Amino acid sequence: MSDDIEIDTDDLERRMDGAMTALKHEFASLRTGRASATMVEPVMVDAYGQMTPINQVGTVNVPEPRMVTINVWDKGMVGKVEKAIRESGLGINPQTNGTIIMLPIPELNEERRKELTKVAAQYAEHARVAIRNVRRDGMDQIKKAKGNGMSEDDVKFWESSVQELTDKHIALVDKALESKQAEIMQV
C-alpha cells in the first residue's frame, strides 16, 4: 500500500456515525406509550416574537412513567406553550395547573403502534440512505485517487475498507430499528 495516496476513512466513519446519531434522536422523539422528556424536544413555542424550543421556556420533567410536566418559567407564556403542544401533532392534550403544564401519556392502541413502527422504519431507511451516500463519496474519492495513480491493490483495499464500514453501520441501523419496533409493540 502506498503512503502517498490515502482515503480518509475516519471522516467517512464520523459521517456515518452522524447518521446513526440523527437516527437515535429521531427514534427518541417517537412516542412509545412511556413518558420521555425528549418527546417534547421538537415542539417550538412562539416566545417573545421568535420560535424557541420548549426546553428554553420551562423545565421538562418526567415525574412518573405516564406523565411529562413542563414548569413554565414565565406565567405569561403558559398559554403559548399549551397552544404549541396542542398544535405539535404529539396527540397529547395538555392540562394546566398554574405554571405547570401536565402531559398525560395515553396508552397506545394496536393500530397506532403499527403506524409508529412504520414511521420508525422510514427513519431507519433515511439513515441507511445517508450512510450509502457517505459510502458513495468514499468510492468517488477512491476513483479519483485511482486516476491519480493509485495501484489496483490499493484500490481494492480501500474499496473493501469503505464497504466494511458501510456494512457495519447498516447493521447498527437494522439493530436499532429492531429494538425500537420491539419497544413500540410492547404493551
TrEMBL record:
One GO term of the biological process aspect: cytoplasmic translational termination
Function field: Responsible for the release of ribosomes from messenger RNA at the termination of protein biosynthesis. May increase the efficiency of translation by recycling ribosomes from one round of translation to another.
UniProt keywords, alphabetically: Cytoplasm, Protein biosynthesis
Gene name in the database record: frr
Organism domain of life: Bacteria
Ribosome recycling factor domain ranges (all copies): 23-185
InterPro entries: Ribosome_recyc_fac, Ribosome_recyc_fac_dom, RRF_sf
GO molecular function: ribosomal large subunit binding
Subcellular location field: Cytoplasm
Principal cellular location given in the protein's record: cytoplasm
Protein name as annotated: Ribosome-recycling factor
UniProt-listed NCBIfam families: frr
A GO term from the CC aspect: cytosol
Family to which the UniProt record says this protein belongs: Belongs to the RRF family.
